[in-house]
Protein: DNA polymerase IV
Organism: Sphingoaurantiacus capsulatus
Amino acid sequence: MEAESPPPEVRKIIHVDMDAFFASVEQRDAPELRGKPVAVGGSSMRGVVAAASYEARKFGVRSAMPSVTAKRLCPDLIFVKHRFDVYKSVSRQIRDIFESYTPLVEPLSLDEAYLDVTENLKGIASATEIAREIKDRIKAETGLTASAGVSYNKFLAKLASDYRKPDGLYVIRPEAGPGFVEELKIGRFHGIGPKTAEKFNKLGIFTGADLKRQDAAFLQKHFGRAGLYYHSIARGIDHRSVKPHRERKSVGSETTFFVDIGEHDALAEAVKPQAESVWRHCERVGLTGRTVTLKIKYADFQIITRSKSGGNVADYAELERISLQLVAELMPLPKSVRLVGVTLSNLAPTAAVEAAPQLSLAI
C-alpha cells in the first residue's frame, strides 16, 4: 500500500475568538450596560449564567455558573435576557468576513473559528497581517472586539488567541512553538479538563516540559489513544487540518453524584440541569434534534441508556419533558445511581439557521 503523504510542515492557521461575545453584544446595544458587570441569562434563582462580561469575570463570574453563586460573588451583577437571534445575526456578519479571506473556516461555535490561510483569497503572504485585518474589520462592522492567535497548527493557534485577551493578537512562530508548550501549566492545554489535569498531576506531570519527558508508550498506557495526541502536542506538533464542514452528531451533558441517588424525585431533579445544559448549547449554535437519550450509570458501574425519537424537539420544555418521561419509565430503580446524562442526537439546523444557510457551519 502506498504511504500517505505527510501533511505540510508549515501551515498558517488563525484562531479567532470573540471577546465575551454575548455579553459584549448586550453592552454594545445598551450603552447603560457598558463598563458594568453583566451576565447573560440566569436571572432566576435556578438559572445558569450563559455568558459574563469582563467586568463580571473580575469577580469570578463565568459561564455555566449558577446564578445564585454569580450574584453572591458580584452583588452588583446585572442579569439580561439572552437574544440568540441577535447573536446569530452578528455571527453571520463575522463569518462573512472570515470567508472573504479563505473557504477553509472551521467554526467551533457562534463566536470562534479556525481559519487556514496558507493559501488565501487575497494573496496576502502574512497570516499575522490577515489576522490584524480581520480584527479591524470585525470592530468596524460589528462594533465588537475579537482576539486572534496565529501559528502553524490548530493547537497553538487556539492557545495564542487566549494569550492576550481581550482584543489580543499573539503569534507563535514555528521555531518558538515547542518552547511555548514547555512553559505551559498542564491545565492550560486546550482539551485537558480539570479531571485529566488532576490525573496528570498524580503522575508527576505539571507542565508541558514534564509532559515532553514522557514517551509515547507511557502516555498510551495511562491515557489510551489520547496518549499519542498528548505526546505530539507536548512537542508543538498537531497535524489536524481545518475542516470547514465538520458535523456534530450529538450534544450531551452528564454529572456524577457525590452520593448515589435511589429516589425518583432526586433523580428527576438531577436530570433537569443536564437537559438545560444540552438545550442551552443547541440554542447557542442553532441546532435541534429528534432523539433524546437518557444515560444511567448505577453504583456498580453498569451503564444503561433509554431513548425516545420523534419529531424535532421544539424547545427546552419539550426536552425536559421527554427526559423526565424516560426517568419515570425506569421506576422503580433496581439499584442506586451514581451518574446521569442527557443527550440530544439526530441533529439538524433550527428554522432560524435554515433561513441562513451559511450559519449551518456554526457547530
Residues 1-8, 351-363 have pLDDT under 50 and may be disordered. Residues 264-285 form the longest helix (22 residues). DSSP finds 14 helices and twelve strands in the chain.
